[in-house]
Amino acid sequence: MTAAGTPVAEVAAAANTRGPGAAVQRGLLIVNADDWGRDARTTGRILECAAAGAVSSVSAMVFMEDSDRAASIALTGNIEAGLHLNLTTPFSAPLRPRPLAERQQAVARHLLRHRLAPTVFHPGLMGSFEYVVRTQLDEFQRLYGKPPSRLDGHRHMHLCANVLLSRLLPAGTLVRRNFSFQRGEKGLWNRAYRRGVDHLLARRHRLVDFFFALAPLDGLDRLERIFSLARRFVVEVEAHPVHPDEYRFLTTGEIFRRAGDVRIASASAPTGLGATSTGLSQPRTP
């Protein structure tokens, strides 16, 4: 499915039936590195990948031990950063609001209680969820000088029921969708739930066409399929360069050999993820 919920086959068919003079749809591969600012080692690994041209953008954590330094590096190095919303991992910055840590702990207890807990709306935690999200949005603006135009979540918890149904993410922002799967990779109900969540996201936010994790790296057919999609669609790939195998793949040039002629968005070109980027679905009016 595409970001707006239209079957891929229909989008592909439409792309092949444009009349003379119509704009040719071009794909784009976005390699986004998560956990920017979590600690100095993580930031350093991501920075090396960005310097090699293998990372397009980063997802920045706030109130973590390296958040302030990472923000300075991103601003001076023109590295495109979005907010990596953190609802579960304890904040590690020396100076962090005590109410934030306490409320995050309550939110984390709910979300980590069971693997299906994120799908359950907890009315008693509405205030805590709102506070934890809003405080991180405010801190990102303080560090980066502007509100985030792109958001995702640590452990993908930005897709939990309390965040989605309470509409805690700013409307119009580019928000990370669910992982994309082929038919048969997940159960019917699992895929149906993910489609429902993506449908809700698409009503208020911009989404890319497909989203995958970089790992595992041992399945060459899988990577070839991802890169092939990026020739015609906007595809985001989530990377964690702190992991040795992903770090090697991104810094040794292997990603360029595998991607071939696929365009990888530049980390120094924030407009590559902007509102007018070809292939990004636009939010619908509720």
What order do the strands of the largest sheet run in, or round the barrel if closed?
5-4-3-2-1-7-6
Would you report the number of β strands? Answer: 7
What's the CATH H-level superfamily name? Glycoside hydrolase/deacetylase
Q: Given the structure, what is the number of helices?
A: 10
Structural class assignment: alpha/beta
Q: What is the CATH third-level topology name?
A: TIM Barrel
Helix content: 25-40%
Oligomer: single chain
By CATH reckoning, the class would read Alpha Beta
Structural domains: how many: 1
* Average predicted confidence as pLDDT: 86
In CATH terms, what is the architecture?
Alpha-Beta Barrel
For the largest beta-sheet, the strand count, sense and barrel status come to:
7 strands, parallel
Shape annotation: globular
Query: Residue ranges: pLDDT <50 for 5 or more in a row?
Result: 1-25, 269-279
Q: Between the first and last Cα atoms, what is the distance in angstroms?
A: 21 Å
Radius of gyration: 19 Å
The helix/strand order is: HEHEHEHHEHEHEHEHH
Strand content: 5-15%
